[in-house]
């Protein structure tokens, strides 16, 4: 087994590229020192050194959007890290899923995200509730009641969607379909799955 010797810069820092473990999307880039790297390994929550504030920074400590570390990769020169994470919400302070939510198009910035990503964002929040319960959370109520309650709600909401479709009401269909998708998200999380598992199956069928 090769011994890892990391190369921290003159300020004792090393860049860390944060990547979504499931989608492989780059979420953000930050810096770690030896202490914050050790804390990341110990707590499994991405922890950085803020160069602007000159202090330790646990991503998500304020927002709740923690980055749960699953793996840490080291490049060939030992001077850069890739942190593979399961995000508990948007990684960017602007509320976007990734800090790289724009692409350069000539002299203009163009958006890269789609509203369809809302399912992934809801799943991330659901996962965070499962790992860190909050009092009064309906999601935690469902998890506490268990599989039978969750599946019962999925069935009830599916029936509501059918009724809404029969009523030919766009507003009612949208409302009930949103309820169904939310409860399906809880069911997926309860089975240690995500919407990406469903997306992969849809892609396979296509």
Write the layout of secondary structure elements.
Elements: E1 14-20, E2 26-32, H1 34-43, E3 47-50, E4 55-58, E5 67-74, E6 81-87, E7 102-105, E8 108-111, H2 118-131, H3 138-145, H4 147-167, H5 170-190, H6 195-205
Parallel strand pairs: 1-6
Antiparallel strand pairs: 1-2, 3-4, 5-6, 7-8
Helix pairs in contact: 2-5, 4-5
Quote the distance from N terminus to C terminus. 43 Å
Which residues sit in consecutive blocks of at least 5 with pLDDT less than 50? none
Overall average residue pLDDT: 91
Helix content: 40-55%
* Alpha-beta classification: alpha+beta
Strand element count = 8
Rg measurement, Å: 20 Å
Choose one word for the global shape: elongated
Note down, in words, how this protein is organized.
Helices cover 41% and strands 22% of the residues. The protein has 206 residues and is of the alpha+beta class. A four-stranded mixed sheet has the order 2-1-6-5, covered by helices on one side. Strands 3-4 form a two-stranded antiparallel ribbon. Helix 2 packs across helix 5 and helix 4 packs antiparallel against helix 5. The N and C termini lie far apart (43 Å).
Brief synopsis:
This protein is an alpha+beta fold and about 210 residues long. Helix content is about 40%, strand content about 20%. A hairpin with a 2-residue loop joins strand 7 (about 100-105) and strand 8 (about 110).
Keywords:
8 strands, 206 residues, two-stranded antiparallel sheet, alpha+beta, 41% helix, 6 helices, four-stranded mixed beta sheet
């Amino acid at each position: 087994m090769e011994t890892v010797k990391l190369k921290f810069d003159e300020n004792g820092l090393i860049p860390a590229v944060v990547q979504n473990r499931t989608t492989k999307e780059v979420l953000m880039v930050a810096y770690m020192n030896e202490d914050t790297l050790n804390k990341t390994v110990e707590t499994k929550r991405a922890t950085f050194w803020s160069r602007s504030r000159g202090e330790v920074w646990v991503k998500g400590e304020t927002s709740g959007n923690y980055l749960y570390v699953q793996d840490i990769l080291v490049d060939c020169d030992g001077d850069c890290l890739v942190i593979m994470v399961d995000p508990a919400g948007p990684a960017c302070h602007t509320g976007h899923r990734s800090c790289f939510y724009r692409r350069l198009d000539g002299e203009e910035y163009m958006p890269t995200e789609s509203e369809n990503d809302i399912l992934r964002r809801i799943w991330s929040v659901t996962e965070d509730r499962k790992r860190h319960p909050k009092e009064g959370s309906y999601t935690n109520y469902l998890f506490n009641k268990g599989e039978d309650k969750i599946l019962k709600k999925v069935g009830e909401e599916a029936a509501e969607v059918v009724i809404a479709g029969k009523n030919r009401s766009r507003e009612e269909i949208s409302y009930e379909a949103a309820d169904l998708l939310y409860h399906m998200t809880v069911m997926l999380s309860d089975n240690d799955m995500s919407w990406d598992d469903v997306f992969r199956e849809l892609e396979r069928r296509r």
